[in-house]
Amino acid sequence: MANLADPRRLWADGKAIDVHGVAVTRLTAGPAPTTLAAAGQGVIEVLGVESETTLVRLDVPLDGAVGFWHPAAGWDRHLTADWMATGLRTVGLVDSAPLGCLYDDAGRAVLAFASDRLVHTTRLRFGVGERAGRFGVWLAMDLGPGELCRIRIAPPGGTVAETVRSLVRRQSGTAALPVPEAGRVPAYSTWYSYHQEVSATAIEAEAELAAELGCGLLILDDGWQRGAYGGSYAGCGDWEPDPEKFPDFGAHVETVHGLGLKYLAWIAPLLLGDDSAARDRLAAFAPHARPEWRCHVLDPRHEEVRRFVVDTCVRLVDRYGLDGLKIDFLDAAMVYAEDSTRREEGTRSGGGVAPAEDARPEGGAGPAEGVRPENGAGREDRANLEDHANPEDRGRPEDGGDVGESMRVLLTELRDGLMAVRGAELMIELRQPYTGPGMLEFGNLLRAGDCPADAAGNRVRTLDLSVAGRESAVHSDMLMWDPQASPQVAARQLLSVLHAVPQISVPLAQLPAAQRAMAGFWLAFWREHRDVLTRGALDAGRPDGLHPVVIARDATRAVVVHHVSDHAATLDPTRFAEIAVVNNTGAERVLLDLTHPAAVRLDVRDACGTPVRSETACLDPGPRWLAVPPSGLCLIRPA
After folding, report:
1. DSSP states of 356-424 as a string?
2. pLDDT at position 337, please?
3. What residues does each domain of the chain span?
4. Helices 160-171 & 455-467, crossing angle to 10 degrees?
5. pLDDT for res 471
6. Does residue 174 surpass a pLDDT of 50?
7. Where is this region: Disordered (predicted)?
8. Nearest to 167, CA basis, from 181, 150, 187
9. With the CA atoms of 527, 531, 537 and 540 taken in that order, what torsion angle do they form, in degrees rounded to the nearest 10?
10. Residue 227 pLDDT more than 90?
């Protein structure tokens, strides 16, 4: 049997068919892939046999391919070789998704695919075959006898965003968790402001200022719970408010509600702290240690763990009047999928991906004071491909079974329990990488992974979330900036994520007046343009270009954000009643490439919203420099 860890065998011959110019080859025992009867659907079916791991290859000639996008791509958007570790992933419900798009230098899809296995674990490999001169994607799946996997191949030629959105719409057959209004307004988060040094007094003061700036949601991050100190997770597991920080947590939540803000609290329900009282009774269900975090990871394949997580979360929301939860580190459960892979590779006649390095906090170090671990790897699993999908087995998982299926059961019970308390107003924040299509029924606020003060990283991560669909509320990572910086420099953190829901995380009481004016101006701009920014069509260019210019548009308005100097935004000024041009650079001008002439009025403001000039102009077709201050705005309207 072909081994996914051995690239020399990945290009072996097998039973193959052609779908939209993509060769689909079964490399293991069993019948050849087949296409669904309806012509032009691009859906293939792969049938499981006996108990072997099923290995399928999708490949195309290299031709003009320049990059490969997938939900957990991060900065790795180049053409990796098939022997490189960057092309190895294990995906499942709580980490990434079996989804990807190879594209050319025009940003057009060459090979785009999505599997219906959004719950159960899939092991992926992708990369350039040096000898074959082709790009391949390999999917290793533990299909039972008679079990079907369906893989959709998109027609080539569409943009990456259009193609991926089309695949995602067909990938999940379940309804997404509705987003209440409070999930689509600016939020204030305590993490970068206070880390674990939170208190009722400090947070209530910040909440009042946040409400004045136009925030409608407060997110209390790590630190509220008993035993939260020193940057570690040693106290996780008991989930009781620290009585010194929050003498009456329920009254505190009520006070914040009285300011007009909804309230979410952070929880990492799969982390079992070494100092927690729950450690003694749950230790048997948490064999995997994270010594650098001073905790263990609970194994969701045990019913006792699932019951503990659901009961804890529902009790917390119900007892203290919370509007929902910020649920962290769900991807930590994938360590048990990796353990299973290691065991299987020693007993099967071939099989799995060579396990990647242990997931580490971003930056590679353990959590010092103020450093937030980020547990990343890459997984996601099973859903439906329209009405042709293979129905999930909805039975309860056995102990020691598939991690994805266990997490699906846990999250279903958790969602249902929380909705019984909060109904349609419930908010659940999920964080990359567990934000794929299979998770949309379990969370409605999808947040970019941690990237403190990294404006480019925040831009890329939120666009990766947005590219798969605009129905959920995509949130930025918490925004922090230097309180001593100029308002123009500080504004770049916020302007980098205008296409998402911003989460502010700076001590508002300590902001200089100029920075507060800047934040107030741009949050007001965001609220006025929210629908076009978060629900309009997005044009962000090639993924490997890291989106130097982002254009959001609807039928009447467009917002153009220049993130890199000297990159032109192509526009038809006659199509819109208003074009908002945002200069998110340190330059004094931006470049437009106009397709039609137009007589317009230009209203220019600086980073704090102060008027700079107002004039009429006749804009000729072609490239044109437009004077806009750094972190400033120009509104273009018909004259």
Report:
1. PPPP--TTSS---TT----------EE---GGGPPPP--SPPPTTS-HHHHHHHHHHHHHHHHHHHHGG
2. 86
3. 7-171, 181-332+358-373+387-528, 537-638
4. 50
5. 75
6. yes
7. 339-404
8. 150
9. 20
10. yes
Which among 113, 167, 171 is positioned nearest to 381, based on CA atoms? 171
pLDDT tens digits for range 20-62:
999 999 999 899 999 886 555 799 999 998 767 899 999 999 9
Residues 21 and 110 sit within 8 Å (Cβ to Cβ)? no
CA dist 128 and 111 (Å) reads 13
Output phi, psi for 403, to 5 deg. Answer: -65, -40
Which H or E element spans position 170? helix 160-171
Above pLDDT 90, what percent of the chain?
A: 79
Would the pLDDT of 378 be above 60?
Answer: no
Q: Give pLDDT, residue 6.
A: 67
Distance CA 575, CA 559 (A): 13
Structure-token pair, residue 469: 């669909």
Q: How many residues does the chain have?
A: 639
CATH entry 3.20.20.70 includes domain 181-332+358-373+387-528: yes
DSSP character string of 251-294: HHHHHHHHTT-EEEEEE-TTEEETT-TTHHHHGGG--EEETTTT
Residue type, 53: T
pLDDT bucket at 91, cuts 50 / 70 / 90: very high
- Bridge partners of residue 219, in order along the sequence: 189, 264
Closest CA to 28 of 44, 4, 6, 45: 4
Contact 186, 260 (CB under 8 A): no
